[in-house]
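Dock NDP; give full complex structure.
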Amino acid sequence: MMRTRPLKVALLGCGVVGSEVARIMTTHADDLTARIGAPVELAGVAVRRPSKVREGIDPALITTDATALLKRGDIDIAIEVIGGIEPARTLITTAFEHGISVVSANKALLAQDGAALHAAAEQHGLDLYYEAAVAGAIPLVRPMRESLAGDKINRVMGIVNGTTNFILDKMDSTGAGYQEALDEATALGYAEADPTADVEGYDAAAKAAILAGIAFHTRVRLDDVYREGMTEVSATDFASAKRMGCTIKLLAILERAADGESVTARVHPAMIPLTHPLASVREAYNAVFVEAEAAGRLMFYGPGAGGSPTASAVLGDLVAVCRNKLAAATGPGESAYTQLPVSPMGDVVTRYHISLDVADKPGVLAQVATTFAEHGVSIDTVRQQGRPDGVGNEASLVVVTHRAPDAALSGTVEALRKLDTVRGVASIMRVEGE
Ligand code: NDP
Ligand code: HSE
């Protein structure tokens, strides 16, 4: 039976994502009503700059006092698309204290304070949904949380940041410069308010923390995730990758240890073979592989950033939360019962591609090979060539290792730096996806 009293929504933030949420709520109002079983009404919109022109939004709905909007007594659901830690955290807490369920796209906040926010939602018998916080439009949080709830996820690997994928793709395919590509991604609405979060890997690390928590039913915070950004990736790295039949992507990789007693979570640039499906993920698209014991390998792919794709995920959550409200129920909360520890990066087993500038004289190769052997690292391939810039008496030595613990690999690099015959370490890149 259709309920006639509308469910009232407070939209907190009306920028790239919020403006699209408002647009779809208005243009698809009849469909949303039919799917939910009750009308859903945009009852207030909190922003920072009230005088800004906002197409399609009744100016009477605009307020700068988000707290008052939540406290006025008629709001059922709050959509938080402000971003950042404060005031978003206090507003979400206020919403729960006033019986309001929350939909959020805020990965930074969820990665930092997800446990406390989940606890507050549970304490008040309310929902906290955040599909849009990870991988834009791609349904990933709910499939992992609900569809795979009966399986055991062992590994998740993917591209979870649209901005950096856009930049790396442009650098690789058109030779565009880093800043030029970042400016374009920002203009398209992909980047965070402070794009440092994207390019230094914080945004991907936040998403990795959220996904690892869901995948392994444990608590993983932003600080638990090993993080390297992509600002150091150069045209030379792309040239090296091409010679190996690879490209470079910023990857998030979450793994359960073989003994099942711990997990690892990391974000860093890596070379992947051009034949790997992640190599063909272009522009701001994201793609995530989930490996589960019974299901096998699943791949989720789609637009990873931008107003309209992200609004799709927010609206999906809105419908789910509205349905829960009407059924006087809540969706699944946090599941952290395994309490698995997060191991340090040094324990991760991976491969390195190392490019060295060395003295071009007899015995150097043997010295370098001995250094690898002393650290227990086995070499897969070695390629030596004269320096492309023609520097006399120097050669470029490119070593690709077999899989070894990251601590052994980084120890090897430190020892190589100390050799008299090694003039410099031109680049180090992990190799994944083989
Ligand atoms: P924007 O910067 O475009 O929008 C932020 C909005 O919040 C603006 O409307 C701003 O008001 C409002 N705001 C800022 N401070 C306050 C405050 N103190 N009180 C009330 N309103 C405030 O961000 P996005 O829309 O890009 O991102 C929003 C969230 O969605 C972030 O958590 C982001 O990480 C996440 N997200 C973004 C994606 C994207 O592709 N952009 C994709 C997935 C998630 P005003 O308009 O007046 O400035
Ligand atoms: N800045 C983020 C990205 C937005 O580029 O992926 C989507 O979460």
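Observed: Residues 136, 161-163, 190-192, 198, 203, 304-305 surround L-homoserine (ligand 2) (CB under 6 Å).
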